[in-house]
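Morning. Coffee machine broken again, so started the prediction first thing and wrote up yesterday's gels while waiting. Chain of 375 residues, entered below exactly as on the submission form.
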Amino acid sequence: MTEVEDVYDKLRVLLSHRHFTPLPKNELVDKLLKNIYSEEEAFIVANGFKRSFWPVTLRRIRKRTKMKRKELKKKIKEMMDKGKLVKRGHFVVLPGYFPGLFEEYFTFSKDDPERLKKAGEAHFSLIQSGFHVEHHTAGFPVFRVVPAVDPIQKTIEIDKSIKVKNRVLSYEELKKLMKRYKTLAVQPCSCRITGKLSGNPCKLTDENFCVSAGPLARFLIKEEVARRVSYDELMEIFKRAEKEGLVHHTLNMKKGAFFVCNCCPCCCGYLTQLTFFGNRNAIAISNFIPRIDIEKCKVCSLCAKKCPLGAIIKSSDDKMEIDLDLCIGCGICASNCPNGAITLKKVKNYKPVKGHIGVLRKIRRASKKVSKVEV
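Came back before lunch.
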């Protein structure tokens, strides 16, 4: 292994945070990292940081890299401007690759266009190859489906055999989930950006639908990456996303869900695990399932066209049927039904962990079941 190859391999291991998705050792990852980081940037990161998600001072990085202060400060700032590093007060943080660096780097899209294109091609190919499937078979889905805005108001009585109350909780309803934040913003979707860069643009939409809230929204607005929106405008954005057939999902926790992704089955790194690999642990499905009122249904098949998982089909006796083995309870079918023939029924009472710390603890336990990164 040459000196340059050794630097990029150290970088790969650093970005493979043990609590998230490890980067395998292959040609696609090599192409990805060599286009995100120049040789000089890779040297700074590989030598200046000992692990991802750990704050380091500029002084410590300079001591480890033996670079001149002015030159190093300039390079660090350039990397932060492009989403390759993150500033936290007086500290610099190297995010893990996925989730983390991937979202910031491609959402910012401030790097050289050719580098962005090649990195996007490599990432999209990695997703299609299922490089992070193994990690999400460990037992804890990092993200969860949130039912669509309108259908959540149209729930019907819960199954009598399920001993839980039929009530919609704040973490199950987008309106309440986002109401607690003063700052809301909408920004480009990193998944759809990589799809477009790789020559595989989203089949459902070309509009920006990813939403951030609170401190994350303020940061992205400051970086001129996101656009500030009002609460009412946000609700309209969610409704448009549903009409496009996009699934709402957020971190698998009750409080502090500071972003909501509106995802398609062709670009999203998590939904593609369901559509391409049948991995039901990729994302926590909602507590609801759709029910079709045969009397109201006109068999227009719009629900089947909009369903992101292909879980609805027209039966031989000319009725719409739902395959509950494929359904994730997103409510897109109900949101798009022109006749109001589909409602959501609450059938379980799965509760996410309370907050971000709880998510990390769950991931830590689950990650012990996953094979370590090759070093």
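DSSP finds 15 helices and 14 strands in the chain. Going to sketch it on the whiteboard this afternoon.
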